[in-house]
Structures are given as structure tokens and as C-alpha cells.
From TrEMBL:
Domain N-acetyltransferase stretches: 5-171
Domain of life: Bacteria
Name of the protein described by the UniProt record: GNAT family N-acetyltransferase
Keywords: Acyltransferase, Transferase
Matches recorded under CDD domains: NAT_SF (cd04301)
Species name: Hymenobacter aranciens
């Protein structure tokens, strides 16, 4: 039986592997019509800022970086358009990605479970995430992990694209 992903905080030494991961993920995203990420985003500066704020987590499988997620409290202004109370503090998952070679091995699920741990540590009971409307994989995953669909929004930073919002409340 394969070992579960190891989840840990990212460090600056992870940035080259993170950028290589992005280079493997972006063409696959774009091939499905998902243009949320491109050659400019996410970049090393974005990941470094996440690391500096202690909010970037990575998953390792067999000693190799297999996934990433920024677990923040940042809610985009457009989140006010979703079916939730945007004034309520939440742990928000951003920049979730899994290496194509590691897909189907529980990496995204492990990172989302880490979001629950971060929320508990912060005394919060709400988790939020948005995903590109073209990302069928996450639209299947989030409900399986107890997230409810909370509406569709646009984001000013990604004009012309639509994003589906999901929320989970911890018991």
C-alpha cells in the first residue's frame, strides 16, 4: 500500500520544485480550457510571499514534491457575490495544485485536510475555496470532502473567467 502524502510547510528551497510543478500543471489545465494559471501566475514571488506569511503547504510522496496549497485567510472582494457570509473569517485554499504524476494518490485531499487543521488551530470553523468553472476534477473533489457549492463568481484578476465557490463548515 502506498504511503500517504507527507504535508509540511513550504520553504524557500521548495521554490524551484514548485515552479517545475507549475510548468507541468499549466499545459494540462489549459488543454481543458482552464486558463486560471499561465506563464506569469503563480510565480516564484507569489510562492515566496506565501512562504514569508507561513501559509504555503506542500505535499510530498516518496520524498518528491507532489502538491501545493496556500492556506490563507484572504477572501477576494468578489467573494461577497457568493452564497456565504463574507464577513465571517475563514481558511481559504488558494493555489491548489497536484503534480500530474501524483494525481489520484490523495494529495489534494491531504492538502484540504491540512486546511481543516489550520482552521482548528486558528479557532475557525469555515473553509472556503474557489475553482475555475472549467476544472472538472476539483468540482468532483470538493463535494466528496464535504464542501457545498456556494455559487459562481467572476474575479477581477481573471477577466472573462468564471469561478465556482465551495464552503465547508467544521463541526
Amino acid at each position: 500500500m502506498p504511503s500517504p502524502p507527507l504535508i509540511r510547510r513550504a520553504t524557500a528551497t521548495d521554490i524551484p520544485a514548485l515552479m517545475a510543478l507549475v510548468q507541468r500543471v499549466v499545459p494540462l489545465m489549459q488543454a481543458t480550457g482552464n486558463f486560471q494559471w499561465n506563464d506569469d501566475y503563480p510565480n516564484a514571488a507569489v510562492f515566496q510571499a506565501d512562504i514569508d506569511q507561513q501559509q504555503l503547504w506542500v505535499a510530498e510522496l516518496d520524498g518528491q514534491l507532489a502538491g501545493v496549497a496556500a492556506l490563507t485567510n484572504d477572501q477576494d472582494p468578489e467573494y461577497a457575490d457568493a452564497d456565504w457570509d463574507v464577513t465571517e473569517p475563514a481558511v481559504v485554499t488558494h493555489r491548489l495544485a497536484v503534480d500530474p504524476a501524483a494525481q489520484g494518490r490523495g494529495v489534494a485531499q491531504a492538502l484540504l485536510l491540512q486546511a481543516e487543521e489550520v482552521a482548528r488551530t486558528q479557532g475557525l470553523t469555515v473553509l472556503r475555496v474557489d475553482t475555475n468553472s472549467e476544472n472538472a476534477a476539483t468540482q468532483r473533489l470538493f463535494p466528496k470532502l464535504g464542501y457545498r457549492f456556494a455559487g459562481e463568481i467572476g474575479l477581477a484578476i481573471r477577466p472573462g473567467q468564471r469561478f465556482f465557490c465551495y464552503e465547508k463548515r467544521l463541526g
